[in-house]
Amino acid sequence: MRADMVESPDKLEHLEWAILARATNQKTCLKLLRLFDKYSSLWKTKDRAAAAQDLVSVGFSLWRAAFLAEKTGLRSEVFSHGRQFLEKMIEDNAIAYVQDKSSREWTFNYYTRNARSSLQRLAFKWPDAVSPYVNKARTPTQRWDYCQQLFDEAVEGFEALFEKRSAERKAATQRRQRRAQKRANRATVRKITLKRRSLPKR
Fold it and tell me: Distance between CA atoms of 144 and 21, rounded to whole angstroms?
């Protein structure tokens, strides 16, 4: 085996992180998809539909960013890759994963900032379901891990909210049914009573 084919320990460590990161993200996205299907009727209000859009945005942004986290974070590199990305976009009029990867110093920041923006919007609108984003200096993988943690918690938070809402709707339906049954019973009793009163006395 050639020397240049031997992966460095740092490279292998990053690949291990990337594999676990993608698996974690995919599991959360699958959980979100199930949540959409289970409570499809509850997602159709204006606020909840917007929340669904933000949750999908977070899931996709982190899924994409997990492939791009091997970066230096140097400002000069971020600028250089941003310029390179812009040039490719103008020159080729197309952007695919290859361009994302080759410009990862910039594209990783783009995707994680998009995830953070959606998480912050969710936390503002749905504080009972989503924890606020805490700004802090983090390495690229730490930043990704933190956003993914908030994403996990957000999906769990919405699941808890919807379970509660679904239980409340079920209880309200049962109360209406009981009231309707009581009214029907009273109407039946009145009908029987009136019928008896109308019978000729012997």
Answer: 8
Residue 33 lies in a domain: yes
**189: confidence class by pLDDT, cuts 50, 70, 90:** low
**Residue 198: inside a domain, yes or no?**
no
Query: Looking at the domain assignment, is residue 191 inside a domain?
Result: no
Q: CA of 35: how far to CAs of 31, 160, 165, 196, in Å?
A: 6, 10, 13, 56
Phi/psi of residue 6, nearest 5 degrees: -80, 120
Q: Give a yes or no: residue 140 inside a domain.
A: yes
| Region 73-100 average pLDDT | 94
> Which domain does 96 fall in, by range?
9-168
In DSSP notation, 2-28 reads -GGGSPPHHHHHHHHHHHHHHHHHHHH
pTM of the entire structure?
0.80
Q: What's the number of domains the chain is made of?
A: 1
